[in-house]
Amino acid sequence: MKLISIVVPMYNEEEMAPIFLEEVSKVMKGLTDYRFEIVAVNDGSKDKTLEVLKKSLDTYPWLVIVNLSRNFGHESALHAGLIEAKGDAVIPMDADLQDPPSLIPELVKKWEEGYDVVNAKRKSRKEDTFYKRKTAGMFYRFINKLSPKVKIPENVANFRLINRKALDQVLALSEKNRVFRVEVPYVGFKVGEVYFSRPKRDKGQSKYNTKAMTSLAIASTVSLTTRPLDWCIGWTMLTGIVTMLSIISEIVIAILLATNILTFSWIYMVVWLGINITLLIASVIMVQLTIMSQYLAKDVLEARNRPDVIVDEVIRKE
Ligand code: UDP
Ligand code: MG
Question: Does the C-beta of 81 come closer than 6 Å to ligand 1?
Fold first, then answer.
């Protein structure tokens, strides 16, 4: 029988933990053709999450608790859980039931149809505030423009099914700046989708404020692409052109002044000269920055040491 692992990071979820375990267990028991486990990662909770989880071990023998030494954050906690998960398919979920367990059978069905990754995509962001909806939309447009080859699916969080083959590739990525929702599209494979509407958090507090969302957006961009470093090239060219035009204009006007064709206070020319020298210095710095950014971009890729290519299968005629 195939094993399905549910991985759930928990930070101060003493209220949600029992409800989550009960709801997910109910759904999983309905999937009679599969064995399942719930890997709960206690991400250094300050409340009684760990105690609650430990007490649940008797009721839920399929529960595995990964207790982290302190709070590492959602992405790292998820990673710890993914390492521990033994499943043929693994489903990361949030503890607050905003990723509805009732969708699990659909994810599994799609997986059995032959998809390696099944994204749980939100039908709409109606439930979100106007602000979150707008910023999320802007973020997806921005990031997907930056990266033509690896697309980040819009309105898909960590909630998705990923099979062993794809998960092993994700876990083989040796980077430390981990962003699951970038790594999964990076490794590729056959991707399917199911749709759901996201309910509001039932109990407890959301840990994602604007600051956390911003740092996730930055971490995702950095993880996905080094392309922003290329912007330096454009800015350098712009600075260079402005500098050249300004210097040439000043020379022309200086000649006109010297030949008395134009009358113009020399004091302005001196100020202009100062501006031109500043522009020239800025241009030299920009050129050097461009060179550095290009080395940096290549070095980031080397340091990250991701596989440059991932083969799904090799097919030959028998
Ligand atoms: N979480 C975590 N470590 C943290 C912050 C959050 O493990 O430092 C967990 C949290 O317990 C929940 C999931 O990550 O299971 C998503 O957090 P939350 O529901 O606060 O995020 P939101 O739904 O508001 O984006
Ligand atoms: Mg939530």
Answer: no
